UniProtKB/TrEMBL annotation, chain A:
Membership in a protein family: Belongs to the dynactin subunits 5/6 family. Dynactin subunit 5 subfamily.
Keywords associated with the record: Cytoplasm, Cytoskeleton
Places the protein is found: Cytoplasm, Cytoskeleton
Name assigned to this protein: Dynactin subunit 5
Keyword Metal-binding applies: no
PANTHER family: DYNACTIN SUBUNIT 5
InterPro entries, A to Z: DCTN5 (IPR047125), Trimer_LpxA-like_sf (IPR011004)
Main localisation: cytoplasm
Pfam families for this protein: DCTN5 (PF21711)
GO annotations of cellular component type: dynactin complex
Native organism: Penicillium cinerascens
Domain of life of the native organism: Eukaryota
From TrEMBL, chain B:
InterPro entries: DCTN4
Disordered: region residues: 1-72, 218-247
Sequence ranges of Acidic residues compositional bias: 55-64
Segments of skewed composition (Basic and acidic residues): 45-54
Name recorded for this polypeptide: Dynactin subunit 4
Keyword Acetylation in annotation: yes
Subunit structure: Subunit of dynactin, a multiprotein complex part of a tripartite complex with dynein and a adapter, such as BICDL1, BICD2 or HOOK3. The dynactin complex is built around ACTR1A/ACTB filament and consists of an actin-related filament composed of a shoulder domain, a pointed end and a barbed end. Its length is defined by its flexible shoulder domain. The soulder is composed of 2 DCTN1 subunits, 4 DCTN2 and 2 DCTN3. The 4 DCNT2 (via N-terminus) bind the ACTR1A filament and act as molecular rulers to determine the length. The pointed end is important for binding dynein-dynactin cargo adapters.
Domain of life of the native organism: Eukaryota
GO cellular component, one term: stress fiber
Length: 202, 618
């Protein structure tokens, strides 16, 4: 790495994560990054919205220090996943038995989250593309190789099957990606290339 | 233009060949066949005259591909959508394949539906998956009761939409169990069996009981009551239970069985194929027609041409009673509908939109008639080559699986093109920004783009690129490929790459781009294990509007931009040659050939590079 990268915008961790100094990451102990993850400026990652243990949920004011003892994971991000500028990752939440609780957000490998997208899904599979300005509602499940078009609003709880393209408000399945989607270097397989050019001058 | 710049599209040659035929080479087609078919879309006027003379062999050499012609829309595909047939040795686009359904699955619950059930379920999910009738969003099963953490969840269940906040309470439906909702709904909405009258009475009562206090339409009960009093058709009730009518599905079934019996009763001969319960759609119907014609003509010949039919064919009657599926149009149905349309509690919001109605039964007019729609199933499909029937893609049947048993995608055969603008060092280009803005390319200022071709085959490939020196279309941009002929290395074992160090191609590629100096003609820009980068020098042309005086500019530019006329797209003809191992051929075809022999192969196709958008002015 040229010396310029050291004082550049990005902090590079041991596992190769490139995290912008201008990103807002809350609750870092509840976030797992798989390595070679890119988090761009002004991205917001809400690791502080983790799930409280069920005992703590019932008796909220009694033992607040307990969650810190056993940090539960709020957000898992896979390898070569790219979180663009001003994107928001927020764990999904649900009213379950009268208690509002958060659930973990799992993001797979080679995922792209577009600029100012809001992701509240329960899971994004591998090679998922979330377009710019898209919204993925609470507890939605986006399977591998699915594409969420720019500006789409995936309603809460929706399941997007693999190889499907969803778009619109509310999102509907509008098509399918080709069989070659996700091949290294082609559409859907640009994650390594994207990772490589981050933090590089020019 | 659906993709951000820069993009690459590959043209499937099937647009030029009317019938994909592996036995015949495209080149060997005779000229009389050719001239009527609009072969190459951009036949310029001057080219047209010369076409007759030169179309003896390979007019694709003479004519350039025009990405702007309306016809190219149908042949240009992003590389990842294309397949490759190993038998035909050709690129296959979605138009030159046939599909076969491997499995059906519900997109919501991702359960596979066995093919025997698909038909009976009407291609829809038979479980709990429903779409919102107002906004098509998948509905969630939720309970109405506000259960505390201690209490177990039970009580009436509803389907609710998290997007538009529609629930089945709006139409007065609750479910007893959270499972098998489709059957429950079917039971509620369909009076399939039994004497219709008492059952519907009962149903209407249960509906009245079930109707939620939240429902904003307080008119359901009154309406049904009044309708029953009139003995009227329920044009406004979603399931028509209040009337002594059958539900839509039941009526269809009744009509179907009625016509079936009619056919069997009226069929002339006992051996008539229509008499069996095959129905009209069976090939028996055709048989019957054919036998009518042939027998009559033969008989006519035998018996001196008497035109009179032997016997009067029995007449089929239509359904007469409700149990046979008859439905009488209500006396004041339209008047009622109109009255309701005008009433205050209905209003605009109460009327179902066209989009909503087209998914529902034809009687539905108002939003409180809308029923939740079971999710339409999706399919996993295998793909075959249309000409040789070889299977090109075969996914695993399981809906959750993303694997393929067979996947012959074009990217494993043809080199993957990627385009990148070249940032020249500041010494050579003085004031331009390091990377040109592809969405606003200044006209008449040369830019360099790097075209990288990455080989995914295990054989080295020789590539020849060709472009028209001036791009077709209204904006003539000059294009030069600085090194049109080059080799790409084989996609050797992954271990080689690993042993060489994974970063080897990485360091070679873009970081040194600025230090590499100026692009030179005849030299490849960069080269890696299985990829080669060449430089294209592009001089964007001027838009027609910008040359004219200022007043003219706006209008011209507007129309041009609308047609994407300002997009700089370069057609590139790629010709690749490689020596394939005959072994591979032997395996696939099963033909005996010399084992350690190399077969020379070639493949040629057009691709289109979308470089950017040209600015109006400098």
């Amino acid at each position: 790495m040229p010396p310029k990268a050291a004082k550049g915008e990005y902090i590079e961790t041991d596992t190769g994560n490139k995290i912008s100094r201008r990103s807002q990451i809350h609750g870092t102990q509840h976030i797992i990054l798989g390595g070679k993850t890119v988090i761009q400026a002004e991205a917001v990652i809400r690791g502080d919205l983790y799930r409280l243990p069920s005992t703590a949920a019932s008796t909220d004011p009694n033992n607040p220090p307990q969650p810190s003892n056993t940090p539960s994971v709020a957000i898992t991000v896979g390898r070569y996943t790219y979180i663009s500028k001003s994107a928001i990752l927020r764990p999904p939440s649900r009213l379950h038995r009268g208690v509002h609780s958060y659930y973990p957000l799992k993001i797979g490998d080679h995922v792209f989250v577009g600029e100012s997208a809001v992701v509240e899904a329960a899971s994004l599979g591998n090679h998922v593309h979330v377009g710019a300005g898209a919204t993925v509602g609470s507890m939605a499940i986006i399977k591998d190789f699915a594409v969420v078009l720019d500006g789409a609003v995936v309603p809460p709880g929706m399941v997007v099957p693999s190889w499907c393209v969803v778009g619109g408000r509310p999102a509907r399945i509008v098509g399918e990606v080709g069989e070659g989607y996700g091949v290294e270097g082609a559409e859907g397989g640009m994650a390594r290339e994207r990772y490589r050019v981050v933090g590089r001058p020019g | 233009m659906s993709r951000p710049f820069p993009y690459t599209y590959i043209s499937c040659p099937c647009a030029d060949t009317p019938v994909p035929d592996p036995a015949r080479k495209r080149r060997s087609r005779g000229s009389p066949q050719k001239s009527p078919t609009p072969e190459q879309p951009n036949v310029d006027n001057d080219n047209k005259e010369s076409k007759e003379a030169e179309n003896q062999d390979g007019d694709e050499e003479e004519q350039t591909f025009d990405p702007r012609s309306p016809r190219s829309n149908f042949s240009l595909y992003p590389p990842e959508q294309l397949l490759y047939c190993e038998d035909c040795h050709q690129i296959k686009c979605p138009r030159c394949i046939t599909e076969e359904i491997v499995s059906w699955y519900c997109p919501n619950c991702l359960f596979e539906t066995p093919s025997s059930m698909v038909r009976s379920d009407g291609n829809r999910c038979g479980r709990n998956c429903f779409n919102c009738p107002t906004c098509t969003v998948p509905l969630a099963v939720s309970t109405i009761e506000n259960v505390t953490a201690t209490g177990s969840q039970q009580g009436p269940w509803v389907l609710s939409c998290a997007y538009c906040m529609w629930t089945t309470l709006d139409i007065g439906i609750k479910f007893d169990k959270p499972t098998n909702i489709r059957a429950q709904l079917q039971k509620m909405t369909d009076a399939t069996a039994a004497p219709a009258l008492d059952r519907s009475r009962q149903a209407s009562r249960t509906f009245g009981d079930l109707k939620s206090p939240l429902s904003s339409y307080a008119s359901i009960d009154e309406q049904s009551a009044s309708r029953e009093a009139n003995g009227e058709q329920s044009a406004t009730k979603e399931d028509e239970t209040p009337t002594p009518d059958l539900g839509t599905d039941a009526r269809f079934a009744a009509l179907k069985s009625f016509y079936r019996t009619q056919i069997s009763e009226t069929s002339t001969s006992p051996g008539d194929p229509l008499g069996s319960d095959l129905g009209f759609s069976s090939p028996g119907a055709l048989n019957r027609l054919m036998s009518l014609y042939t027998s009559s003509s033969r008989l006519g010949g035998l018996y001196g041409g008497s035109k009179k039919p032997k016997s009067k064919p029995p007449v089929m009657r239509e359904a007469l009673t409700a149990s046979e599926g008859l439905r009488i149009a209500p006396e004041k149905g339209d008047a009622d509908v109109i009255e309701r349309l005008g009433s205050h509690e209905c209003g605009w919001d109460g009327v179902a939109s066209i989009d909503q109605r087209k998914e529902q039964s034809p009687d539905v007019r108002f939003t409180d008639d809308l029923l939740p729609l079971p999710c339409l199933l999706r399919t996993k499909r295998a793909k075959r080559c249309k000409s040789c029937k070889h299977i090109l893609v075969k996914p695993e049947t399981k809906p959750q699986s993303t694997r393929f048993r067979i996947r012959l995608i074009a990217l494993s055969y043809i080199p993957l093109p990627t385009l990148r603008p070249l940032a020249l060092p500041s010494s050579s280009s003085l004031m331009s920004s390091p990377v040109p803005d592809l969405n606003a390319l200044p006209p008449l200022r040369p830019i360099h783009v790097l075209l990288t071709l990455k080989n995914h085959m295990f054989d080295p490939v020789r590539i020849t690129l060709a472009t028209p020196s001036v791009t077709p279309g209204r904006v003539a941009s000059k294009v030069t490929v600085l090194s049109p002929q080059f080799d790409i290395g084989a996609n050797s074992d992954v271990w080689d790459e690993a042993l060489q160090g994974a970063s080897a191609p990485v360091t070679g590629d873009p970081r040194l781009a600025g230090l590499r100096g100026v692009p030179e003609a005849g030299k490849v820009w960069d080269k890696g294990r299985n990829w080669t980068t060449v430089v294209l020098e592009v001089v964007p042309g001027t838009l027609p509007g910008s040359e004219a005086e200022g007043g003219n500019e706006a209008g011209e530019d507007g129309t041009l931009a609308q047609q994407d006329g300002d997009v700089l797209e370069i057609p590139v003809f790629v010709h690749m040659e490689w020596d394939a191992e005959a072994q591979l051929e032997q395996q696939n075809v099963g033909k005996a050939s010399k084992p350690d022999d190399l077969v020379a192969r070639e493949l040629a196709y057009w691709m289109v590079l979308g470089v950017g958008r040209i600015k109006t002015s400098l």
